[in-house]
Amino acid sequence: MAFVEVRNVSKSFASAKGSRDVLSGIHLSVEEGEFVSIVGCMGAGKSTFMNILSGLMKADSGTVSIGGQTITGIHPKASVVFQNYSLLPWFSAIENVRLAVEAAHPEWTRAQQVDQSRKFLETVGLGNALHKRPSQLSGGMRQRVAIARAFATEPSILFMDEPFSALDALTRSTLQQVLIDLCSHTGRTVTTVMITNNLDEALLLSDQIIPMTAPPRAKFGAPIAVQLPKPRSAAQLLHDSHAVRIRAEVVERLAEFIHTKKTGSPVIPIRLSTVANEERAS
Predict the structure, then answer these.
(1) Three-class SS string for 103-131?
(2) Is the torsion defined by CA of 68, 69, 72, 75 positive or negative?
């Protein structure tokens, strides 16, 4: 059994027009230590799925297990990074992190919790902003605090819901590198599932990319392996033929999902080798 196993998960919500089906028969397997990205169109239900996977929301049917344990709430060794930072505004950066460390390690002394919090804030480049409140930090700095908080708890699994989408391109690139460094240097295996609408980001970070079908009643398509050595760079991915091919395949899958949902018939497939050659030529 894989470290993360999702079986036949479905979810619907009540609306003025009756029940609205969002997810239908979702299956997912993630091996321990893998970094998996889920991509799809807006409104497909990616965040709903992430809330179910992380234990923040209950599915209508199906099961989620992590490490062989069926999940009925938030996993004790899981951390979540949201798009909107989710920091407590009346606490400093170090206290925001320390509170999460305290929840994960109540047996530690306060001094140990503070030391752990300082260590990870310094790792993400916030050693000079330990005592600043969120209102005194930029958006990128707030997200650094959120990432430091996630890793400071020493999670076995990390859930990320479009963590960089609200940031400018330079800050996004910087924090992607911070994430790569943290995943590489924590000294322990961290399994990661990330929602993203940025395909280049998925290529940079992932071992697998999973395309999601168009709404309603969204499902997952077959995973696409990213068999490229890590760490990777954005410049490398622009010219790597395997990366070009994966990018084309993901785009083709998503386009096919949307076309099939609208017309009921599959789209005529694009020849990926042709796309790859054209992208390399450009």
Answers:
(1) HHCCCCCHHHHHHHHHHHHHHCCCCCCCC
(2) negative
For 206-229, the pLDDT digits (tens) are 999 999 887 788 888 899 999 998
Where are the strands (E) in the chain, listed by range? Answer: 4-15, 18-30, 35-39, 61-66, 69-70, 78-81, 157-161, 191-195, 208-211, 224-225
Phi and psi, residue 159, nearest 5°: -110, 130
Beta bridge partners of 23: 11, 218
Residues 157/141, Cβ–Cβ less than 8 Å? no
Helix axes 272-281, 241-263, angle to 10 degrees: 130
The answer, as to whether pTM is greater than 0.70, is: yes
Task: Please determine, for residue 62, whether its predicted confidence score (pLDDT) is greater than 80.
Answer: yes
d(CA 70, CA 110): 32
Number of other CB atoms surrounding residue 186 within 10 Å: 14
Of 73, 96, 81, 76, residue with least CA distance to 154: 76
